[in-house]
Design brief:
The protein is mainly β. It folds into two domains: about 210 residues, no CATH class; about 80 residues, Sandwich (Immunoglobulin-like), CATH 2.60.40.3080. About 10% of the residues lie in helices and about 35% in strands. Strands 1-2-3-4 form a four-stranded antiparallel β-sheet, covered by helices on one side. A four-stranded antiparallel β-sheet has the order 18-17-20-21, with no helix packed on it. The chain has a three-stranded antiparallel β-sheet with strand order 5-6-13. Strand 8 and strand 9 form a beta hairpin. The protein is elongated and about 65 Å long.
Length: about 300
């Protein structure tokens, strides 16, 4: 299994960083930084826990509901739905200590989800901002790419996949009672991103978050640098966690690897990034010091 990695494309005057993560089956997922969190930008598609144990595929709706142990399924048992929507997993998968997400990643906690929703403006508007803008009817402001993956429920079969009456459901990793787990959902005809709790026998999507993600209220020594807020429209602060000596040179590149801005700063671990003159989109930065230590990161401009 591969951890999250960066591919560096170097030329005479460019530096480009692309983020991907692979699960144990070899499925590759794009990732996105939202605020101080890093999320997969796709729903999980694995058939195994991170230790290699198989997660059974159960096709019968009733057998899935009453399995009493981890299980996955395709929506409507149609494998064509896998690439677009990912698999549906029962709640036993979401809370299992073997971890269905790639190494270094996890099923988000209730607090992880709440942090995301709060960053996107709260429950009343986060759904629109997180929903996919081409397959679904959202604006996808930060590249989260929420998809209407649907729900598996024994009393009614598979529900609400697709766009017209579509709904997306995502497990958290936390029980709300002895049989219910917190989950989050959004749907076509609402701007909301709801928090609720449901029985662990249902089938929902899983969206993984990087285990080293920072909360909005703190920092982690594991992450060498981060930009906050992220996305931003005018200015943001680049925070360097490591104690490094010397003046800093910050270079900012667009997704074509072109240098679009350069900042020189005397020794400081808190540096202002001015978004003036930068159009909406993804950008990558490098920080070089007098002792040639290089840090790398990425941020989003969203006016």
């Amino acid at each position: 299994m591969k951890k999250n990695y960066f591919i560096f494309l170097l030329c005479l005057s460019c530096f480009l960083t692309l983020a991907q993560v692979e699960d144990i089956d070899g499925n590759s997922y794009s990732t996105v930084i939202i605020g101080t969190q890093e999320w997969m930008a796709e729903n999980l598609r694995t058939t195994k826990f991170s230790n290699g144990d198989l997660i059974p595929n159960i096709t019968s709706v009733n057998d899935f509901y009453y399995s009493g142990s981890p299980a996955w399924t395709y929506y409507a048992n149609n494998s064509d739905n896998d690439v677009i929507y990912g698999k549906l997993y029962n709640g036993f998968v979401a809370v299992d200590s073997r971890n269905c997400c790639p190494t270094g990643w996890k099923v988000p906690s209730d607090n992880d989800w709440t942090t995301l929703v709060d960053f996107m403006g709260g429950e009343a508007m986060a759904g629109t901002k997180l929903k996919n803008s081409s397959v679904w009817n959202g604006t996808d402001d930060v590249g989260f790419n929420a998809m209407p993956g649907g729900l598996r429920y024994a009393l009614a079969g598979d529900l609400n996949e697709g766009t017209l009456f579509g709904q997306g459901y995502w497990w958290s990793s936390e029980y709300s009672s002895s049989v219910d787990i917190f989950f989050y959902r959004t749907e076509t005809f609402t701007p909301n991103f709801y928090r609720s709790a449901e029985n662990y026998t249902l089938g929902m999507s899983v969206r993984c978050i990087k285990d080293s993600s920072l909360s909005l209220k703190g920092t982690s020594d594991f992450q060498e640098s981060f930009v906050y807020p992220n996305p931003f429209s005018s200015t943001a602060t680049l925070v360097i966690n490591n104690k490094i000596e010397g003046n800093r040179t910050i270079k900012i590149f667009n997704t074509n690897g072109q240098l679009v801005k350069e900042v020189f700063k005397s020794a400081s671990n808190s540096i202002t990034i001015d978004g003036a003159g930068l159009s909406d989109g993804f950008y990558f930065y490098t920080v070089t010091t007098n002792n040639n230590k290089i840090l790398n990161g990425k941020f989003i401009i969203r006016n």
